[in-house]
């Protein structure tokens, strides 16, 4: 149902005869409404945008307010794009994108990225356009939708071509062509083939470009798409010119102009006349070149195509330099003026791209600094913790040894007899050094002997030597001792034994 809403949005907007500004006013009202009135404002907007015959379906949204909001933002962004109001696309598209990410709606994420990329492309911000189209392509891949993937790949190829990164453009367009050949869509395939031809021509590989543009023209011819046929003929003429097949190029252009004569596409017609002027000038046909360039200048002015007009003025100045120097000078001045405008626009685009790259680099640098700071803080915390643990262990050892020393001094003062050490066959350590092990631990005699020696600060090797047993056996006894006493290591054991003794005393 949601897809149906989007498909019918623009036709229904026309049917309800609502003004362009009215939609945005309703959108502003929706955004500023209090939470309890947001649903009503949203439904009103959708009603006006989509038509009364669809309002019943909007009841589905009442249990999912975030979803409704997501589609409202996207609908307004799409509407603004169709109205060519780029400034009103950005905010609702980003809001819809955030909600789509929250709701894990991958398809709408891709649609939002596509809109944002298209806006950047129109504003000459190719860097961010590519960034958004790549994210769009990632979403398309997750959906495994060849239709969407092909469209995104074509957009990426076009943008990479615009900044002369032809190898990257070639990679993307060949992938798009591969996908299109799996689908029965000759019109889309022809577009991708035409793009491939332009890319190879940019690489000075005219021979490689020829089969692509030839196939594209054949597909559009079979489909009866006259406008597209004319464009393909113009593209093919450029390939023929690069191959020095000038007669074939001229024939293609004249055929294209005859097709375009019955259309309103004056821009493509101006481009064709410009190409014919260049061919005539090459052949030395001055009068013909003047006629062709004159048509190109006139038509490009009508459609405000300063790029084509600039090229036509330059060509016309070349034609008239001996025939009419004054007029040639005027054309040359016009060419310089238009070139300055084009240069300024390109410089503005370059500056925009550089600024975008700088912002991206600055963001990456800040992210790296933050990551390094976090790593340093973690390392510092680990070192401080390790140092404190070391101090604790040292203090425990000092405490144990001090306690032993006090016990020994008390024993001397009380004239206690030296502990009797029996033979190796049956070693029995005296536990009378003022250390009484609590019976609560339920230790065996041997375990008590080991505890006693641990309290004296002896290592496992030394304990094994005194008791005439293996070091491994000592370890096994200590494991049992730790379990019975509820400790994890020797330091905790000594501490617990001494603490229990203090409690006894």
Instruction: Compute the separation of the termini in Å.
Output: 83 Å
Give the integer mean of the pLDDT values: 78
CATH topology of the domain at 365-505: Arc Repressor Mutant, subunit A
Number of strand segments = 0
Q: Helical stretch count?
A: 21
CATH class group of the domain at 365-505? Mainly Alpha
**Can you give the helix content as a percent range?**
over 70%
What is the radius of gyration?
42 Å
Strand content: under 5%
Write the CATH homologous superfamily of the domain at 365-505.
Winged helix-like DNA-binding domain superfamily/Winged helix DNA-binding domain
- Biggest sheet features: none
Structural class: mainly alpha
Secondary-structure arrangement, i.e. CATH architecture of the domain at 365-505: Orthogonal Bundle
